[in-house]
Write a structure and sequence with these properties.
The protein is 52% helix and 14% strand. The chain is of the alpha+beta class and 446 residues long. Strands 8-9-12-11-10 form a five-stranded antiparallel sheet, covered by helices on one side. Strands 1-7-6-5 form a four-stranded mixed sheet.
């Protein structure tokens, strides 16, 4: 009789393993991944997808199966092992009470170990390692069990959900397979760190995901750096400005740079006969220009530029004045990095220059997220109070910086190398600053 109970107990342990493996496989799987397998022709995956669409019910069914098999395992296996061990332990010459206690401890310990290893740990680890094959093999049988035990599963699930509702929580039948851009970016960076995705691809995907989070003010060329012309300027000035700057498009303003009225293209200027260029106003050749607020997101801005077949947009501040300008090339470079066109000199400025001493030199117009990514030891927290590294220095110093001013940051020290009037033109980052690092009189501690 004990041998029959032993076999039944071992089969019940396998039953526990079945439900444990199914439970962990369902939790580990993603609906979109299963859907892809089905689209490839794996129709057995439909049972898995059906389980995922009713995940709460299926997990409750797994829990019910685990509970039933575990209880029956304890009943059958304990009796079988006690019956088989009592004779051996009694032969050791121990008293009946001691032998009974040792037999109970032995049988319970062995039954628990077998149940944990064969019924819990092995199925769990297998389901985590090969989630889809495990779920694919077990799903049809599990759906049958759920159908058979449906009334009991639904009643228990309903009772649990009512208790959750008392605490203001609402149960969900399936997990959301959607991911936010932040979650996807985190997954991409983790994949790159683990070597499953090469760094260039990871950087491209990460920039693509974060693209929609950026606004026009993040990528625009500031008003101070824009080469503008008054709309009454002669066409010859357009050609001369193109020759000296290498640009082909110039915004035109009327009376004040806050009133940009259009944009003129070099190709229209050179099409004007030379004898007319000194007298013909650039405004006669101008085209309308797209105007957008600083807060417009880059994905929306890109769509507007493409729909209008435009190359640039004027960015307006909250008062309607000119804050800056952004081009289609700026948007593309935000994803793929620096892009050289036919007007570039070929000496595109590096985001940051590393010196032989280990220090870094970069423009004060760079954004914190750019230098954080490019200069690994440097970490500057982004803040709505500033958009550029020069703005960070002003924010930290609480005044207009001067050459030589320093601000301690995570990873080292930032020092103002060059000012252009009241704008921070160049910054130096000194990595791994120590307590003995010299701090100038105009420095602050961040």
């Amino acid at each position: 009789m004990e041998w029959i109970l032993l076999v039944v107990g071992l089969l019940l342990i396998l039953g526990t393993g079945f439900f444990v493996a199914m439970e962990f496989a369902l939790v580990a799987l993603d609906q979109s991944a299963v859907q892809q397998e089905i689209e490839k022709g794996d129709y057995k995956g439909k049972a898995v997808l059906q389980c995922l669409k009713t995940l709460s019910t299926q997990l409750s069914s797994c829990q019910l199966g685990i509970t039933i098999t575990t209880l029956l395992t304890g009943y059958t296996l304990d009796i079988a092992l006690q019956s088989m061990a009592v004779g051996t332990i009694s032969s050791w010459g121990l008293s009946e009470s001691v032998a009974r206690v040792l037999t109970l401890v032995f049988s319970m310990g062995l039954a628990t170990a077998l149940s944990m290893i064969m019924g819990e740990l092995i199925p769990k680890n297998m389901a985590i390692a090969i989630s889809y094959p495990t779920a694919r093999a077990l799903a049809p049988y599990h759906l049958l069990f759920t159908k058979m035990m449906g009334p009991l599963v639904r009643s228990m699930n309903g009772a649990a959900n009512k208790i959750l509702n008392l605490f203001g929580l609402e149960a969900k039948e399936e997990l959301s397979s959607a991911r936010t851009p932040e979650e996807l970016s985190s997954m991409v960076r983790r994949s790159a760190d683990q070597g499953t995705l090469d760094s260039d691809t990871a950087r491209f995907v990460d920039k693509t995901l974060s693209f929609a989070e950026l606004t026009a003010v993040d990528v625009m060329t500031s008003r101070r750096q824009i080469q503008m012309l008054e709309d009454t300027a002669p066409v010859s000035d357009v050609i001369e400005l193109a020759r000296t700057t290498g640009h082909s498009r110039f915004p035109l303003y009327r009376e004040d740079q806050d009133n940009v009225v259009g944009v003129v293209h070099l190709k229209k200027a050179v099409a004007v006969p030379e004898d007319i260029r000194p007298t013909l106003e650039a405004g006669a050749l101008m085209e309308d220009v797209l105007r957008v607020p600083e807060t417009v997101h880059l994905d929306s801005l890109l769509m507007q530029l493409r729909e209008g077949a435009l190359q640039l947009a004027i960015v307006l501040d909250e008062y309607g004045g000119t804050a800056g300008m952004t081009t289609l090339e700026d948007l593309v470079e935000e994803i793929v990095g620096e892009v050289s066109d036919e007007h570039d000199t070929g000496n595109t400025e590096e985001l940051a220059l590393k010196l032989g001493s280990g220090d870094w030199i970069f423009s004060g117009l760079r954004r914190p997220d750019e230098v954080n990514e490019y200069i690994e030891p440097l970490t500057v927290m982004e803040n709505p109070a500033f958009e550029t590294m020069g703005g960070f220095m002003m924010h930290a110093l609480r005044r207009v910086p001067e050459e030589g001013d320093t601000v301690p940051v995570d990873g080292g020290i930032l020092r103002v190398e060059k000012m252009e009037q009241r704008r921070v033109d160049r910054l130096r980052f000194i990595p791994q600053a120590t307590e003995n690092t010299e701090i100038t009189e105009g420095s602050v501690r961040a």
